[in-house]
C-alpha cells in the first residue's frame, strides 16, 4: 500500500493541457508591447491574452489584468537575457507571488499560477508519475540549489543540464546530473509504458 504505482489518477485537479485556452502568457504579452510600433505615443496599451486582456501603463511600466468584470493589478518581473540587453518578462502570481510564465483562469474567474489554480500535467496524473517528478525536483532544487528551473521548461523531466553550484565539487555535480538524467529517462519510459499499455524498455 502506498508504494510506487499504487496511487490512482488525481481527480481533484484539472489538467494543464485542457486549460490552455484559459491561460495568459507573459512572453506573448511582452512581444505584443515590444512589436507595437506606436507604443511610444500611447499611455495605455491593451494587450489581448487568451480570453481576456491586460492593460499596460507605459509611463510607470505596470499592468492590470481584466478579470471578474474589473481590473486587478498584475505585478511583472523582468529577467535579463544572456545577451545583456534584452529581457524576459514574467508574471508574479497574484496568489502566491511565484514568478511564472503562465496564469490560468480558475473556475471563480480569477487568474493564478498552475499551483494555485490546482492544475496538473497529464503525465502527473498517471499512476506513480508524481512520485518520480518529486524525486527529480529534490535533485534539482534541494541538492543542486536550482529553484528557478521552471524558467527553462514547464516540466522538470524536460530540464536540460542544470548549472553547477559554485561551491560543489565536479565529481559530486556529475553524479547528480547523471542521477537526474537516469530519472528523466525512467520517467518517460514509465509514461510511455502506461500510455501505450506495453513495455518500451527495449527502445531506451
Low-confidence runs of at least 5 consecutive residues: 1-12, 198-204
Distance between the terminal alpha carbons, to the nearest Å? Answer: 29 Å
Structural class: alpha+beta
Total beta strands: 12
> How do the strands of the widest beta sheet line up side by side?
3-4-5-6
Q: Would you tell me the overall average pLDDT? A: 79
- The percent of residues in helical segments reads 25-40%
Shape: globular
Question: Proportion of β residues?
Answer: 15-25%
Provide a descriptive summary of the structure in words.
The protein has helices spanning 26-34, 129-143, 170-196; strands at 14-15, 23-25, 44-49, 52-57, 62-67, 70-74, 76-80, 87-92, 99-100, 102-105, 111-112, 119-120. Helix 2 (129-143) packs antiparallel against helix 3 (170-196). By secondary structure, it is an alpha+beta fold. The strands form 4 sheets. A 4-stranded antiparallel beta sheet has the order 3-4-5-6, with helices on one face. It has a 3-stranded antiparallel beta sheet with strand order 2-10-11. Helices cover 25% and strands 24% of the residues. The protein is built from 3 helices and 12 strands, in the order ββαββββββββββαα.
Amino acid at each position: 500500500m502506498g508504494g510506487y504505482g499504487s496511487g490512482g489518477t488525481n481527480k481533484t485537479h484539472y489538467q494543464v493541457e485542457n486549460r490552455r485556452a484559459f491561460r495568459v502568457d507573459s512572453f506573448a504579452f511582452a512581444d505584443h508591447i515590444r512589436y507595437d510600433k506606436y507604443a511610444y505615443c500611447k499611455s495605455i496599451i491593451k494587450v489581448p491574452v487568451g480570453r481576456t486582456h491586460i492593460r499596460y501603463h507605459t509611463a510607470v511600466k505596470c499592468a492590470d489584468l481584466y478579470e471578474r468584470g474589473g481590473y486587478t493589478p498584475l505585478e511583472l518581473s523582468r529577467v535579463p537575457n544572456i545577451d545583456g540587453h534584452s529581457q524576459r518578462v514574467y508574471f508574479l502570481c497574484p496568489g502566491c507571488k511565484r514568478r511564472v510564465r503562465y496564469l490560468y483562469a480558475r473556475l471563480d474567474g480569477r487568474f493564478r499560477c498552475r499551483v494555485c489554480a490546482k492544475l496538473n500535467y497529464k503525465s502527473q496524473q498517471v499512476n506513480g508519475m508524481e512520485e518520480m517528478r518529486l524525486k527529480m525536483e529534490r535533485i534539482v532544487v534541494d541538492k543542486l540549489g536550482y529553484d528557478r528551473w521552471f524558467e527553462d521548461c514547464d516540466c522538470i523531466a524536460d530540464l536540460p543540464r542544470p548549472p553547477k553550484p559554485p561551491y560543489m565539487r565536479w565529481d559530486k555535480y556529475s553524479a547528480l546530473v547523471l542521477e537526474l538524467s537516469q530519472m528523466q529517462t525512467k520517467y518517460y519510459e514509465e509514461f510511455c509504458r502506461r500510455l501505450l499499455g506495453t513495455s518500451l524498455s527495449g527502445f531506451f
